[in-house]
Design a protein that fits this description.
The protein has one domain. The mean pLDDT is about 80. Helix content is about 70%, strand content about 5%. The protein is built from three helices and two strands. The longest helix is centred in the last third of the chain and has 26 residues. It is mainly α and about 100 residues long. The protein is flat, with a radius of gyration of 18 Å.
């Protein structure tokens, strides 16, 4: 891949190699296969926690590698982290409500 130059903000170019992209893609495929395989196993209440953990790992891979978040400014990463934290809070509160009904 060629380097990406952003002239508006003065960022230096960055490059993600094909090898890293392919490894990430294969990792995402493996995690998706794991999620599908775990859907057929009765883990009780751990099914949801396991599925959400795998989904979170997949989200971090996509954000860091494919969306190039690891190359962004610190402030942008903080905003993305706050958005993820907010989503996590909503999911946790939803499960608490569901668990006590």
């Amino acid at each position: 891949m060629t380097a990406h130059n952003d002239n508006r903000s003065g960022h230096a170019g960055h490059s993600v190699g094909y090898g890293q992209t392919l490894l990430t893609w294969f990792g995402l495929l493996a995690l998706t296969g794991t999620t599908v395989a775990l859907a057929g196993i009765d883990l009780g209440h751990w099914v949801i926690i396991t599925a959400l953990t795998i989904a979170s790992v997949k989200t971090l891979l996509v954000l860091n590698i494919f969306m190039h978040l690891k190359f962004e400014d610190r402030m942008f990463r903080i905003f993305a982290g706050v958005a993820m934290l907010t989503l996590t809070i909503f999911i946790v509160l939803t499960f608490f409500d569901y668990a006590f009904h």
